[in-house]
Each structure stands twice: as structure tokens, then as C-alpha cells.
Design goal:
The complex is a heterodimer of chains A (about 300) and B (about 210).
Chain A lengths: L8 E3 L19 H10 L8 E5 L4 E3 L4 E7 L2 E6 L3 E2 L6 E3 L4 E7 L4 E6 L3 E2 L30 E2 L8 E4 L11 E7 L8 H9 L2 E3 L7 E5 L10 E6 L4 E4 L5 E4 L6 E4 L1 E5 L1 H7 L7 E6 L2 H16 L2 E4 L3
Chain B lengths: L1 E2 L5 H18 L4 E6 L3 E6 L7 H11 L7 H6 L3 E8 L7 H8 L3 H10 L2 E6 L6 E4 L14 E4 L3 E5 L2 E4 L4 E3 L2 E5 L20 E6 L1
Parallel strand pairs in B: 4-12
Antiparallel strand pairs in B: 1-3, 2-3, 4-11, 5-6, 5-12, 7-10, 8-9, 8-11
The chains are: A alpha+beta (about 300), B alpha+beta (about 210).
């Protein structure tokens, strides 16, 4: 690692089954983008890759390999010769090549997969990083300049692929996010519900992988918002005592004492990974059944966009 | 998510834990994770799977209270974990405030905190953080209005009617009354958490 970028961590599809210990799932904020990157280089979708935020890393490759970049559109080049690296497809790099990934122009985050997958120890079943508890990933922390990360060598790889989905480019329109009712929806008055769905919120800069904090008009919360602590999941929308929503991220505290007004469609959660501070979003009222259908539809449409390319 | 309708914190926690332990023993294939909390049990199913008829039947019987549980016996057989705590002063900056609030002396408060046997009702907030029930009523303190950005590892704290120990340096809104050197979270161990739902704890002033 020559330059790491402001927040680059090793992530995979996350930790399951450990919420009982107080451990959140972590994993890529856009799980699908990492899956796509893995598929492009012929990896199992569960392999670990890099998630970078706002500015990508500069990496020197000490061996020949194949990489894929997904997520927000970026300018990425290989030196020497300033070869442009296309996104969403497999790309060969040689020993000594330096990959320079620039600012994430298309949104907040991007992903890099490497043939074989990143080789760091499993912690509680996953290679994902939980920085605030120094768990997993590269020594429990974000990647820094000078770090050396090994790559697993796997004999049986799938074929390389490219993915012809939409590019994540800078979107200045309001992001529409579909939600279904949360477990304490009845705690909120009709006035609160209307205010929640009726306004445009914007993303605060103090947002991170734990939660997307939103700025907007506070809900009145005539019924208060403290509840007995109960389990929380990524995509739950809590209303803090300030009356403003926090969309819980993948590094969330697994139990929480604030009422949940709604939960985001799993199919739409990945879109949040790309929100930049100041960007606007609006919630759309929907149902759990629609959420399930949307998820199936989203996954099918991702699948149909892969094209295998010949290994060479 | 199953919600307990028992009348007290302790009864609710025991009921939730009972459900949790029972479902764990039954090893339902479709269950990915069981997450107990204050008065709810969340049952996370594996992706794409629906609950089996058998599971649904059990869940209905839990909430109909027609299902006898042996939890009382299994909690009573748990060994008690002793935690040594240095109370007050720099280690417990909020003990003074609690004394002012209650009119009790600091040493009386310490004695009462140490007099109870606590049970871990559920985990959450951070790896290894257990919410303990059994706090004497007079010691309950609302969460701080402004959470601290840094609570030192090992801090023993009170939040509402719960007490707990911060397993790492973390931000936190609970009231700190002491500190322990006891390691609460160690990945080299299996399980890595000292506290797990159902464990019994006592505090000892050093």
C-alpha cells in the first residue's frame, strides 16, 4: 500500500450469527458491488476485498494478478504507461505495476477485488473489519501506507467476467429509498409519520459505517423515543431523541434503545453506500412483501448482466 | 421478533433467555442467529429460508405461555463470575453524582452495588458488552444527556436500570462508577466474551 486513502478497510460479506456476542455484521456497505467485483476476477463471492471511501488507494502489486474495480466511478490508472483501468471487469496487472485510484467521483465508496481474495485471518468467521473494536481485517484497523497485504492463491478459479450494469456516477438528484414499517411504527404519531415521509433529508458529514445521520426537520415525538433495548439490524431507521433519523449501517451497535420508525428495503440499502454529505434523500412508504419482491428482482437483474470472458 | 409480556425486568429477561436457550438446543436449520434483548428475542432466519411449521408452532406456544421452560433451574446452576472493581475517584467520576442524587454516601452506594447478584440479560452495543439486570432500584440512573466520547476500557457503569462494563475504550452515555482490569473480550478465547446471556456476576470492591 503506497497511499491508503482516508478510509480503506478490508471487507467481505460480513459476520453472521455473532450478534449474541454484541458483534455487528460489518462487511461491505454495498455487498453486491463487492460480490460483482469478486465474480469479475473469478473469485467466490465471499472473498475479502478492499472498500475505499472518498479517495481510492495507491497500490503496488508485488506479483502478477487480476483485479476488478466496482462501486462509484473513479479514475483509475496503472503506472507505468498510465493505462486506464476500466470498471466492472477483470483487468490484468503485472508484478511492479502501480494502481492509482483517484477520488470516488460517482459516490462515496468503491471496491477492489483481487484474484484469489485478500489473505488476512478470519475473526469470528469473517475477514471484515470493525475498526471501533479493532476486530478483523488488517490488524483490526483501516489500511495505512506501508501495509503489505497477502493474496490467497487459489488453484480453481471461475472464469473472468465483466458486468454491464449501470455505472455509479455522481447523482445530484434526491435519492429515493423504499422502506417498510419498523417494529415501533405505532409509537409514532400520524403527524410524525407524515413529517418523516413528507420531507427531504440530507446526509450529515458525521455519518460513517455505524450510521447515516440525517439532517432535516425534527419529528415532534409526542410519545418519546426511548424503548427497552432491542436488537437492531442494518437498514433500521432509528429516531434519536433529537427527532432526527439515523439509518443504521453495517457496523451498528447490535442493540439499541431508540424507536425504529421504518426499515429500508435490502434492495435499496446498497444505494446508501454512495451518498455524499449534503446529498438529499426521501423515504417512500412501502410494505415488507414489496421489500422481499424487490430483493429477488434486484438480484436477478444483477445476475443477468454478467458476461464471461475468456481466461488468458 | 418475540416480545415478552412478563411484568418485571428480571422475569422478562428470564423468559427471553429461556426461549433463546430452548431454540438453540433444538438446532433449527433455518435459524441463523438468535439475539436476546431486554424484552424481545429476535430470530434471524438464514437468507431465503422461511420458518418451518415446527418452529412456528413453538413460537406460538411461547407467547401463549403454554410452554414450560426449565430456565430457572439452568440459571441457578450457573457459576458466579467475580469482578474486582476500583470504585469512585478517577476510576468512577459519576459516583459523586449518584451520591448527590440519592443522598447515600459513596461507600454505601458501593456496598449496595456489590450486594447484588447480577444476570447478563443480553449482549449488544459493542463486542463483549453485557447488559446486567439485578441493579438495586436506588442505584438506577438515567443515561447522560451528552454521552462521553471516550469511556476507558473496564469502566463499570450504570444506564437506566442496567449496569454493565465497557469492554474496550468506547464512546458511551452511561454513568461511570468504577473500573476493573478484568478482560471482558479476548479473541484468543472461545467464546471471546466473558459475559454471555444467562451468566451471573458479582462485583467486589478493591
Amino acid at each position: 500500500m503506497i497511499k491508503s486513502g482516508p478510509m480503506t478497510t478490508i471487507q467481505d460479506q460480513g459476520r453472521m450469527g455473532v450478534a449474541q456476542l454484541g458483534v455487528p455484521p460489518s462487511g461491505a456497505m454495498d455487498l453486491n458491488a463487492l460480490k460483482i467485483a469478486n465474480r469479475c476476477v473469478g473469485n467466490d463471492v465471499h472473498e475479502a476485498g478492499l472498500e475505499y471511501t472518498l479517495v481510492g488507494p495507491t497500490i503496488e502489486f508485488l506479483g502478477e494478478t487480476v483485479i476488478a474495480i466496482t462501486g462509484a466511478s473513479v479514475a483509475a490508472v496503472i503506472e507505468p504507461n498510465s493505462r486506464k483501468v476500466p470498471q466492472n471487469q477483470a483487468f490484468h496487472v503485472k508484478s511492479g505495476d502501480v494502481l492509482i485510484i483517484g477520488p470516488t467521483l460517482g459516490g462515496a465508496r468503491g471496491y477492489l477485488a483481487v484474484q484469489g481474495g485478500l489473505d488476512v485471518p478470519f475473526v469470528l468467521g469473517s475477514r471484515s473489519t470493525l475498526t471501533r473494536s479493532q476486530l478483523g481485517g488488517y490488524q483490526g484497523r483501516a489500511i495505512r501506507a506501508g501495509d503489505k497485504i497477502n493474496i490467497l492463491s487459489k488453484p480453481d478459479l471461475g472464469s473472468f467476467a465483466c458486468w454491464q450494469g449501470e455505472k455509479r456516477s455522481r447523482n445530484t438528484e434526491t435519492l429515493l429509498i423504499r422502506v417498510f414499517p419498523g417494529s415501533q411504527s405505532d409509537l409514532f404519531t400520524n403527524e410524525d409519520i407524515q413529517a418523516f415521509f413528507g420531507q427531504e433529508y440530507s446526509l450529515r458529514p458525521d455519518s460513517d459505517r455505524m450510521g447515516f445521520r440525517l439532517a432535516g426537520e425534527a419529528l415532534r415525538l409526542s410519545n418519546g423515543s426511548d424503548i427497552a433495548s432491542e436488537p437492531s439490524f442494518p437498514g433500521n431507521i432509528q429516531i434519536a431523541s433529537s427527532g432526527l433519523p439515523i439509518i443504521l449501517g453495517r457496523d451498528l451497535p447490535v442493540t439499541g434503545g431508540y424507536a425504529k420508525i421504518a426499515t429500508i428495503f435490502a434492495a435499496d440499502f446498497g444505494d446508501l453506500a454512495y451518498l455524499l454529505p449534503g446529498q438529499k434523500l426521501r423515504f417512500i412508504q412501502a410494505t415488507l412483501d414489496e421489500a422481499k419482491a424487490a430483493l429477488i428482482h434486484a438480484e436477478q437483474s444483477i445476475e443477468t448482466r454478467f458476461h464471461n470472458i475468456e481466461n488468458d | 421478533m418475540l416480545r415478552s409480556s412478563q411484568s418485571t425486568d428480571l422475569k422478562r429477561a428470564r423468559e427471553v433467555l429461556g426461549w433463546c436457550q430452548f431454540l438453540e438446543k433444538m438446532s433449527f436449520n433455518e435459524i441463523q442467529d438468535l439475539i436476546p434483548a431486554a424484552d424481545t428475542l429476535s430470530i434471524q432466519l438464514k437468507y431465503g429460508l422461511e420458518p418451518s411449521a415446527k418452529l412456528v408452532q413453538f413460537l406460538r406456544s411461547f407467547t401463549a405461555e403454554t410452554f414450560p421452560l426449565d430456565l430457572e433451574a439452568s440459571i441457578d446452576n450457573e457459576p458466579i463470575v467475580e469482578i474486582d472493581v476500583s470504585y469512585g475517584g478517577g476510576d468512577g467520576p459519576d459516583l459523586k453524582i449518584l451520591a448527590e442524587m440519592t443522598g447515600l454516601s459513596e461507600s454505601e452506594l458501593i456496598a449496595r452495588h456489590c450486594s447484588a447478584t447480577y444476570i447478563v440479560a443480553f449482549m449488544g452495543f459493542a463486542p463483549g458488552f453485557g447488559y446486567l439486570i439485578g441493579l438495586p432500584k436506588e442505584l438506577s440512573m438515567p443515561r447522560r444527556h451528552e454521552p462521553r466520547t471516550h469511556v476507558p476500557q473496564g469502566s463499570v457503569a450504570i444506564g437506566g436500570s442496567f449496569t454493565g462494563i465497557y469492554p474496550q475504550d468506547l464512546p458511551g452515555g452511561w454513568n461511570i462508577i468504577g473500573r476493573t482490569d478484568q478482560i471482558m473480550w479476548d479473541l484468543a478465547l472461545n467464546p471471546p466474551a466473558l459475559l454471555l446471556p444467562g451468566r451471573k456476576i458479582r462485583f467486589r470492591s478493591i
